[in-house]
Design brief:
The protein has 107 residues and is mainly beta. The protein contains one helix and six strands. It has one helix at 57-66; strands at residues 5-11, 16-19, 25-38, 44-56, 72-85, 91-104. The chain has a five-stranded mixed beta barrel with strand order 1-3-4-6-5. The longest helix has 10 residues, at 57-66.
Length: 107
Amino acid sequence: MKNSVQLIGHVGQEPEIKNLEGGKKLANISIATNEVYYRENGDKVEQTQWHRVTAWGKTADIIERFVTKGKEIGIEGKLTHRSYDDKDGNKRYVTEVVANEILLIGK
């Protein structure tokens, strides 16, 4: 199976853009996806999931130029897991989507 993720959601905060050594660009955003279903008694239930998204290069350029907080976008990428040690020496784990394509949907 191929590691592929597709999400459509709203951007939760202004993109964080970093220009790295060698001219590489990195963009970090969070996307909220919503799911709605109804219980047997008819009550409506809405669930929001937050997803960390990282983009590099041209995809990061597009995010920097066109993506703002609240904008609806679609992304395609792969799911990744990594860990790091925080400033107190505690191991932290991160799951994120590394985007390789972006679709600008909302206004």
